[in-house]
Amino acid sequence: MLRFLSQLGALFVLTAICFYISILAWSRVSASVFSQASVSSTNLVLYQLDFMLRGALFDFMEHTHQSVSPLTINQNATAFVYYTLMFRMFVAVYVISSLFRVLRFMLRRWRVLLR
User: Fold this and answer.
1) pLDDT digit string (tens) for 77-88?
2) Do the beta carbons of residue 98 and residue 58 sit within 8 Å?
3) At how many degrees (to 10) do helices 41-56 and 2-29 cross?
4) What residues contact residue 71 under an 8 Å CB cut-off, 6+ apart?
5) Three-state secondary structure string covering the chain
6) Which of 10, 15, 36, 81 is most exposed, with minimal Cβ within 10 Å?
7) Nearest to 27 by CA among 86, 87, 74
8) Contact 101, 19 (CB under 8 A)
9) Is-contact 23 71, C-beta < 8 A?
10) Comparing 11-20, 23-32, 55-64, which segment has the lowest mean pLDDT?
11) For residue 55, what pLDDT is reported?
12) For residues 61 and 3, what is the distance between their CA atoms, to the nearest angstrom?
């Protein structure tokens, strides 16, 4: 069980690191992807955390207007908007599928123990 969870976590961490590097590079190449003039690495980490929470917690943060990041995306940067939307959808799908995988894994183990 621990090996299974560690593999799920490792894949998610690797994807998060790749996404961070890509938005860092994108913000350095095109300063217009965020509404703020200066973007620090710390603010990008908070932006990514905010995005992952919005993906994992679905509409709770959106509905209550909660945010952990001072950055806001520039809606005129269409390619960046769709890129970040794809990552947000990935996080939501990943969380849902991971929950189902863990439940299925646990049910298989418990079914063996009950027999």
Assistant:
1) 889 889 888 888
2) no
3) 130
4) 34, 35, 36, 39, 43, 44, 46, 47
5) CHHHHHHHHHHHHHHHHHHHHHHHHHHHHCHHHECCCCCCHHHHHHHHHHHHHHHHCCCHHHHCCCCCCCCCECCCCHHHHHHHHHHHHHHHHHHHHHHHHHHHHHHHHHHHHHC
6) 10
7) 74
8) no
9) no
10) 55-64
11) 61
12) 31
Q: Which of 5-9, 43-47, 63-67 has the highest mean pLDDT?
A: 43-47
Chain-centre distance for alpha carbon 22? 13
Nearest partner of 85 among 93, 3, 66, judged by Cα: 93
Residues linked to residue 73 through DSSP beta bridges, in sequence order: 34
Task: Give the separation between CA 93 and CA 96, rounded to whole angstroms.
Answer: 5
